[in-house]
């Protein structure tokens, strides 16, 4: 027989990764031949050898460094030392999860096999806090096809009773004392609720609590399915059962796979050494490691070397991943849409023990396999819909079942309209549901202009078709799409289009996707829902909940908030007492926004917290309309902003400023930081700050006036611009007048700043991308960008007629090209074209 040539670095195509020295020892036992390591490079820390026709690199995690991060580092180093590696196997021990479906015994082997909704491995501590903040890996990749084909072949021959090769490899270990099965203790499984008594073995543990299991003929059984991976060791039966009940069908726990599945195509093979409970000990570890290694050798030996050579290297895979990501990133994206976007980071979730009923309803619906794929949470303004939506989104995100989320907000720029709705959702779905990614990517690659197409075309190509290619998701929980505050989308027609697209999509959803929509009961949405078949959705009306149930939650909320205020203001711990809280709760009449505003109002009162509380308690209780109570508290907040020490004349001036500044904030189409807003409307910043500083109760200025100014709740806008609700003419804001004033301010600002080559690049034909970002930011200040984007919209909403020779006319004569150039620097030219068209129709109307 000819002697084999010693392989070079490029000849190694298979990486075998272990976490423990005992696992590495078992792996080394399975080599048909060992090779010396290379002198140069970082390869000396690897064991090299051959299994059947494959050259294999064995790597082990540094001693004592278990866990996903350590595994990720080892995998990365392995790939860079051996650039021709095609795939990996992660082989070692794990904690079994015996269940009615899977009779898992010690020494059995569990192999990760992808299902419809998972890639074979799922991270169970996903979304938990670690030293580096919340970790997020999303869906973990499935093993490469090559390995899945090999599994099928091995499985088939085992079914036919042809497992002689596996037996031969196992018997090899009987000759190595360290791995022998001769001295193993009994394999006992205790009741999950029964905790270990103590000591190194289960000698003292009650025999009564042993779960009775029948005798089994086979000594080793191979199980295929889901493996749960995470950084926490599970050593408690109850915890094991809890996690297992959340991750349907999980067979085993381990601690490394989640760190490498997405960067290293690999298969996880685990020998079961304990049951992840308090009775676990290390006795079975060597034997379990040996079983996993024997199976791995069996598997590798059925893979033809030619197939390995043809497979892509991990580097090629990575490159492809980059191409996919870059292509998907071409889709327009509303960064503030996701429930956990940076701008929403201070939003709270429901207090524990509150909103229990409604959260349960939503959870039950999403788990049930009924055909109603849409859940409509309908409620008046301020009843807590967004907090509920945020809570649900957080829960599903933590369990990795959040498909996408879009939180609409009027006046919020990209999240105030539906223009980027579908593309944003498509991008989120592609990153959260990995089997979908390829299909969405193909659609974006095929339809390069998809971002500018109609909502329904985008929906069909980016969501419907990819979903239908995924097949049916039966047997697993569905992913959830959360659409919050649909009524805040600024175009009623778009709202109806969205609703009809969602219903039309029902068959394609195939139980893969479910949709939670929250909205107020306003007309376009009710009409929209009335047009869709009742069998497709269920509705929950938040303001129909019995008042007692809501009051219970409101009292909890008030207790929680007032306790914090009492601490901050050094009041008595029991302040303000149960009776005051009860009375406040009654005044809230079911509106959480009333409570939140009241608490902020009291908090802001600082020295006068007590007085403010009393003034709220004194308010009228005559009205039974919740909105009336809200009007009243908003009015109290506004009145408290004007100090009583001013003269009437001074007050008059102050009201004018307040209406101007506050009116601008509620009418802007996209929030601006204070400084930019002041420059736009030409108000000194100091003066605006003085006015707003007393309005914390309604205005989010948590970042000390540096970030964009936002309302705490949209209901304040509705209040301020409705003279039936805001009946005091000192405060009421006439929205048409504000739009007109803003349109004028925008045109004025643009007329004085826009010019040819505004970014000063001095080289025609330069691409927007090639210009330095800071240079662009310096030349295109927020207020200028705002003016360019929204002046036409303000003009439209001001109901003002255009006249020849007016400021707009002058602006168009001198600056229309500068304006379009600026928009193209902002990469928003298409919005300019749309604006020009609507301007044309305005001019037509005015000329009639
Ligand atoms: Zn025990």
TrEMBL record:
Annotated keywords: Repeat
Protein name: Purine and uridine phosphorylase
Entry annotated with the keyword Repeat: yes
Residue span(s) of domain Nephrocystin 3-like N-terminal: 360-520
InterPro entries on file: NLR-like, NPHP3-like_N, Nucleoside_phosphorylase_d, Nucleoside_phosphorylase_sf, P-loop_NTPase
Entries under Pfam families matching the protein: NPHP3_N, PNP_UDP_1
Keyword Repeat found: yes
Sequence ranges assigned to domain Nucleoside phosphorylase in this UniProt record: 15-285
Gene3D superfamilies: Nucleoside phosphorylase domain, P-loop containing nucleotide triphosphate hydrolases
Signal peptide: none
């Amino acid at each position: 027989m000819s002697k084999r040539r010693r392989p070079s670095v490029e000849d190694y195509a298979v990486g075998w990764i272990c976490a423990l020295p005992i696992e590495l020892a078992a792996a080394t036992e399975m080599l048909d031949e060992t090779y010396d390591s290379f002198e140069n490079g970082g390869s000396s820390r690897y064991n090299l050898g051959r299994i059947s026709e494959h050259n294999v690199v064995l790597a082990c995690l540094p001693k004592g460094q278990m866990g996903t991060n350590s595994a990720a580092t080892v995998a990365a180093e392995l790939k860079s030392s051996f650039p021709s590696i095609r795939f990996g196997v992660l082989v070692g021990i794990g904690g079994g999860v015996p269940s009615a479906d899977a009779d898992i015994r010690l020494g059995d082997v569990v192999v990760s096999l992808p299902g419809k909704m998972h890639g074979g491995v799922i991270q169970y501590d996903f979304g938990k806090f670690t030293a580096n903040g919340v970790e997020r890996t999303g869906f973990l990749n499935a093993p490469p096809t090559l390995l899945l084909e090999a599994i099928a072949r091995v499985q088939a021959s085992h079914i036919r009773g042809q497992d002689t090769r596996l037996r031969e490899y196992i018997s090899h270990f009987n000759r190595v004392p360290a791995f022998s099965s001769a001295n193993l203790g009994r394999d006992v499984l205790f009741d999950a609720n029964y905790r270990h008594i103590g000591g190194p073995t289960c000698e003292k543990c009650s025999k009564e609590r042993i779960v009775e299991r029948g005798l089994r003929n086979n000594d080793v059984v191979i199980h295929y399915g889901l493996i749960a991976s995470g950084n926490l060791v599970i050593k408690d039966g109850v915890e094991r059962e809890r996690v297992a009940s959340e991750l349907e069908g999980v067979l085993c726990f381990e601690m490394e796979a989640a760190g490498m599945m997405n960067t290293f195509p690999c298969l996880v093979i685990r020998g079961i050494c304990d049951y992840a409970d308090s009775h676990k000990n290390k006795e079975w570890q060597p034997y379990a490691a040996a079983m996993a290694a024997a199976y791995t050798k069996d598997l590798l030996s059925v893979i033809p070397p030619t197939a390995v050579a043809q497979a892509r290297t991990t580097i090629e895979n990575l490159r492809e991943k980059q191409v996919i990501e870059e292509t998907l990133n071409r889709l327009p994206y509303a960064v503030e849409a996701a429930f956990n976007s940076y701008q929403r980071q201070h939003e709270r979730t429901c207090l524990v023990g509150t909103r229990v009923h409604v959260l349960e309803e939503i959870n039950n619906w999403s788990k049930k396999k009924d055909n109603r794929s849409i859940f409509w949470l309908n409620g008046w303004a301020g009843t807590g819909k967004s907090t509920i939506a945020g809570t649900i989104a957080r829960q599903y995100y933590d369990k990795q079942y959040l498909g996408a989320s879009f939180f609409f907000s009027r006046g919020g720029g990209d999240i105030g309209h539906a223009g980027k709705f579908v593309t944003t959702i498509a991008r989120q779905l592609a990153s959260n549901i990995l089997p979908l990614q390829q299909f969405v990517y193909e659609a974006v690659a095929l339809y390069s202009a998809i971002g500018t197409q109609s909502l329904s075309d985008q929906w069909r190509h980016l969501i419907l078709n990819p979903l239908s290619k995924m097949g049916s998701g039966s047997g697993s929980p569905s992913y959830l799409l959360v659409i919050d505050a649909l009524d805040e989308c600024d175009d009623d027609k778009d709202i109806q289009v969205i609703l009809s697209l969602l219903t039309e999509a029902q068959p394609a959803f195939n139980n893969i996707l479910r949709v939670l929509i929250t909205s107020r009961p306003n007309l376009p949405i009710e009409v929209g829902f009335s047009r869709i078949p009742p069998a497709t959705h269920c509705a929950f009306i938040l303001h129909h909940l019995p008042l007692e149930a809501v009051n219970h939650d409101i009292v909890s909320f008030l207790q929680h908030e007032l306790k914090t205020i009492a601490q901050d203001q050094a009041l008595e711990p029991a302040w303000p007492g149960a009776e005051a809280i009860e009375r406040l709760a009654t005044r809230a009449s079911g509106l959480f926004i009333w409570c939140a505003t009241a608490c902020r109002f009291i908090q802001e009162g600082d020295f006068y917290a007590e007085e403010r509380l009393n003034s709220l308690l004194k308010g009228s209780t005559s009205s039974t309309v919740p909105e009336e109570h809200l009007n009243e508290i908003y009015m109290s907040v506004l009145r408290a902003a004007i100090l009583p020490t001013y003269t009437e004349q001074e007050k008059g001036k102050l009201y004018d400023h307040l209406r101007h500044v506050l009116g601008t904030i509620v009418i802007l189409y996209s929030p601006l930081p204070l400084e930019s807003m002041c420059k736009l409307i030409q108000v000194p910043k100091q003066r605006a700050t003085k006015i707003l500083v007393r309005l914390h109760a309604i205005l989010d200025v948590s970042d000390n006036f540096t970030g964009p100014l936002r309302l705490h709740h949209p209901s304040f806008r509705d209040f301020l611009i409705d003279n039936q609700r805001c009946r005091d003419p000192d405060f009421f804001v006439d929205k048409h007048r504000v739009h007109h004033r803003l349109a004028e301010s925008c045109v004025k600002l643009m007329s004085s700043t826009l010019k040819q080559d505004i970014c000063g690049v001095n080289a025609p034909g330069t691409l927007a991308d090639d210009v330095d970002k800071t240079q662009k930011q310096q030349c295109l200040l927020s207020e200028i960008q705002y003016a360019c984007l929204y002046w036409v919209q303000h003009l439209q909403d001001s109901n003002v007629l255009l006249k020849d020779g007016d400021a707009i006319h002058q602006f168009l004569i001198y600056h229309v090209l500068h304006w379009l150039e600026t928009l193209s620097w902002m990469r928003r030219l298409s919005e300019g074209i749309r604006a020009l068209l609507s301007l044309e129709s305005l001019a037509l109307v005015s000329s009639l």
